[in-house]
Amino acid sequence: MKVALVNPPWRFENSIYFGCRAPHLPLELGYARALLTDAGHDVLMLDGHLCDQSAEELAHEIAAFGPDMTVVTTAPSYLFWRCTQPELWVPREFLLALGGRGGTTVAVGPHGSATPRAVLRKLGVDIVVLGECEEVIVDLASGRPLDDIPSIAYRSGDDVAINGRPHAAQFVDFKPLRWPSEWIVRHHHHHHRFEREPDGPGAEVEASRGCPYACTFCAKMDFRDRYRRRDLDLLLEEIDGLIAQGVTYFYFIDEIFLPNAELLAALAERKVAFGIQTRIDLWKPELIDALGNAGCVSIEAGVESLSAEGRDVLAKRCRLSTDEFAERLIYARRTVPFVQANLI
Question: Is the pTM of this model over 0.90?
Answer without folding.
Answer: yes
